[in-house]
Design a protein that fits this description.
Elements lengths: L3 E6 L4 H13 L2 E3 L14 E9 L2 E2 L3 H5 L1 H4 L3 E8 L6 H14 L2 H4 L2 E7 L1 E2 L6 H16 L7 H9 L4 E2 L7 H8 L2
Parallel strand pairs: 1-2, 1-3, 3-5, 5-6
Antiparallel strand pairs: 3-4, 7-8
């Protein structure tokens, strides 16, 4: 049994893929939270939570908040999988602020956020998700091109088509952080 746990909540598969890669590289146990009993958290020193990123909110992160007492003193790693580019400081800051507002203060000092990029297959999206992405694309196209951020420019380049930014190399910093004691 490993002392590292990877929990993931994946809607379309990108987050699950990252969770499996992280678990393989760390020889960690990996579970969907619906198949995991929170009382088993006591067995782990490091808990990695992977969730999809939707409007700066990480899907399923309530799992961490609900289990704050069992997670106290553990190394907590949160991996947000979405379209935002992890190297844009403003993107990371937005997600970090959202995460801090959803997690109890007691967990902030032991947690670390990482962001990885996901994928979109339009045929698999629900109507509302396609609608939101169309609204985003329309809003970006109406903006003065000189005022678009680098992230917005990149988004315009891919919205409306299937794409994948899923990259196994993206888990390396997460794995290195988890291995450091």
């Amino acid at each position: 049994m490993s002392d590292t746990l990877v929990i993931y909540k994946s809607k379309y598969g990108s987050t699950k893929q990252y969770a499996e890669w992280i678990a393989a590289d760390l020889n960690a146990d990996v579970y969907d939270p619906s198949r995991f009993s929170p009382r088993d958290l006591d067995r782990y020193a490091t808990v990695i939570y992977c969730g999809g990123l939707y409007a700066n909110s990480i899907r399923g992160v309530r799992f961490i908040a609900r289990n704050k007492n069992r997670l106290r003193g553990k190394k907590i790693v949160i991996v947000a999988c979405g379209l935002s580019y992890p190297h844009f400081e403003e993107s990371v800051a937005r997600v970090q602020r959202g995460l801090e507002s959803r997690l109890p203060q007691a967990l902030h000092e032991n947690s670390r956020l990482f962001m990885v990029r996901g994928s979109i297959t339009y045929s698999r999206l629900k109507f509302f998700e396609r609608f939101i992405l169309r609204m985003l694309e329309t809003a970006l196209r109406k903006k003065n091109p000189e005022r678009l951020t680098l992230e917005e420019q990149e988004m315009l380049g891919v919205l409306g088509s299937d794409f994948s930014f899923v990259d196994r190399a993206s888990v390396q910093p997460i794995v290195e952080y988890c291995k450091a004691k």
